[in-house]
Amino acid sequence: xxxxxxxxxxxxxxxxxxxxxxxxxxxxxxxxxxxxxxxxxxxxxxxxxxxxxxxxxxxxxxxxxxxxxxxxxxxxxxxxxxxxxxxxxxxxxxxxxxxxxxxxxxxxxxxxxxxxxxxxxxxxxxxxxxxxxxxxxxxxxxxxxxxxxxxxxxxxxxxxxxxxxxxxxxxxxxxxxxxxxxxxxxxxxxxxxxxxxxxxxxxxxxxxxxxxxxxxxxxxxxxxxxxxxxxxxxxxxxxxxxxxxxxxxxxxxxxxxx
Amino acid sequence: xxxxxxxxxxxxxxxxxxxxxxxxxxxxxxxxxxxxxxxxxxxxxxxxxxxxxxxxxxxxxxxxxxxxxxxxxxxxxxxxxxxxxxxxxxxxxxxxxxxxxxxxxxxxxxxxxxxxxxxxxxxxxxxxxxxxxxxxxxxxxxxxxxxxxxxxxxxxxxxxxxxxxxxxxxxxxxxxxxxxxxxxxxxxxxxxxxxxxxxxxxxxxxxxxxxxxxxxx
Lengths: 258, 217
What we know:
The complex is a heterodimer. Chain A has a single domain, classed as Orthogonal Bundle (MetI-like fold), CATH 1.10.3720.10. Chain A is mainly α. In chain A, helix 2 (24-56) crosses helix 5 (90-114), helix 4 (75-86) crosses helix 5 (90-114) and helix 5 (90-114) packs antiparallel against helix 7 (131-164). Chain A is 76% helix and 0% strand. Mean pLDDT of chain A is 83; it is low at 232-258. Chain B has one domain: MetI-like fold (Orthogonal Bundle), CATH 1.10.3720. Helices cover 84% and strands 0% of the residues of chain B. Chain B has helices at residues 2-7, 9-43, 45-60, 63-74, 81-105, 109-117, 122-152, 165-174, 177-205, 207-216. Chain B is globular, with a radius of gyration of 20 Å. Chain B starts with a helix and ends with a helix. The chains are: A mainly alpha, B mainly alpha.
């Protein structure tokens, strides 16, 4: 890579506010703000729906096919269509981001709840738990590895799609890419690409770290051997609970697009 | 809408055939590359985590960033169709390496030991025992990669080479919905057709998975 290509990225002026152009940190913040909004709205819709479908088994064909349908939707086309129909602005873009973020969350939440060992659910009922207690104290914690991998996929999807959405005029890091392309300023394009790639990787690693923290050690088998013996006297229980985490791997990293 | 279709058959056909080419070439290259890499990850255990972490990181990079970074790394023109092909190949490989490795790992050690005991050498055991057993997992991953590729190609329209994505940018410039709708519908249909073909191939080459379903049912 020549100096010229990295020039924009390494120019301190582009990292400070106050100029005519938005600084790179400001663009990162805008990008994060879009991402948070879209992810929160999508999670508020998809998590309860996935829990409901997984818990009751009603409408499971929706949850199963959502991922495939979502994956095959061309993101750029969806954004442009919504903008042409609804007009410019963040509204149509937010709708597109939410529509693309729902399928991964919905499908993994559903799959996670379905994969819970029925024996664990029966045991919880036998202990006198109410349906909601069974859901939130047994099913959700066991399904958490899959649910959080769905949230991670949705996060990557939203970061990538909001970059593309700069084409229809919203802010964020996509601005560097799109403006750079139309100005033939490849230094700016490279700066945008490097920063957005770095942002996506950092967010994904942070999400992976959070996943490790929130998932119960009983599922991941990360309990030190000595504590394990003290807290879980019956090794058979631990062995029985591990297979339920197995489905996490195949569908764990199937990000849709962008 | 009908009128738009009638007046632009040639444009739509050209966009569609470019789309098919840009989406499927990376899938083919991806298969060829990820099979040996996935095998190496399983064969040499110390490679497993580095290779899978690397593919996880590559997978996290947004497509448009990869598409515009490829030319600066490889040294080709930024507006070349090769960028799309290389970027999508990277995604396909990143996804399939994990799938191939997980598929091969899922083979029961008892089965490979039995094959060895029957006199299968390593290569023949891999081709005629381990790969067939891993096929359902690998084909499931291939379906994901193919469908994702078909929908990702249109992002290339931002650098002027996007197959059906060209219909999206045209619709945006004209503020006119029909080309966009046509593009989305064709892209989704194409993804469904490719997915369906892989499912048919899967039924054909792994008949035993259906036999197991019948017994279970």
